[in-house]
Write a structure and sequence with these properties.
Blueprint (H helix, E strand, L loop, with lengths): L1 H88 L9 H14 L3 E5 L11 E9 L2 E10 L2 E9 H4 L2
Antiparallel strand pairs: 1-2, 2-3, 3-4
């Protein structure tokens, strides 16, 4: 029995020594892994820096586009100022229009008011000078409209328009 007891004590002693060695080995590995844990923090910091760089590059690209838009706007403003100066300096062009062109003026006036398929019912010969009434039929949003435009000295001064369905109840 004594031999069995000695055998068990030796076995327990070996197990304690092995556990102590394994514990020491684990502590050594943990001390070696501590710098590697900092690598995880470095990875997170690199991702944050990458995001900042991307936003910076986007910001630079956006700044370049905004500068380009500003320059384009300045050119457009200058061109519009030149155009406005040319328009205000030009004499009234339709004051000397022949009667056929007066009908074109009425057609353009109606198109500007979103009418389509404009059909002028008044002949150019019916106009007295550069004034008179021009009857028309036109469509807007698919609805037929009838009316007349009043010309005075070669300019459309007013128009009277009704939808066809309101004329015939």
């Amino acid at each position: 029995m004594q031999a069995l007891l000695i055998f068990v004590l030796v076995l327990v002693l070996l197990l304690v020594v092995a556990a102590a060695l394994l514990l020491r080995r684990v502590q050594g590995l943990e001390s070696r892994l501590a710098p590697l844990a900092r690598l995880d923090d470095l990875d997170k910091q690199l991702q944050l820096l990458g995001g900042l760089i991307e936003r910076r590059e986007f910001s630079v690209a956006l700044q370049a586009k905004l500068t380009e838009f500003g320059e384009t706007q300045a050119r457009l403003t200058a061109a519009l100022a030149e155009l406005q100066a040319a328009v205000t300096a030009a004499p009234v062009a339709h004051a000397t229009l022949p009667s056929g062109d007066l009908l074109g003026l009425v057609r353009e006036h109606l198109v500007e008011q979103r009418f389509e398929a404009v059909h002028l019912l008044t002949d150019a010969g019916q106009l007295e000078g550069r004034s008179g009434h021009v009857a028309f039929e036109a469509r807007r949003d698919g609805v037929l409209h009838k009316g007349h435009a009043v010309l005075l000295d070669g300019a459309v001064v007013e128009d009277h328009v009704r939808s066809a369905w309101s004329t015939f109840p």
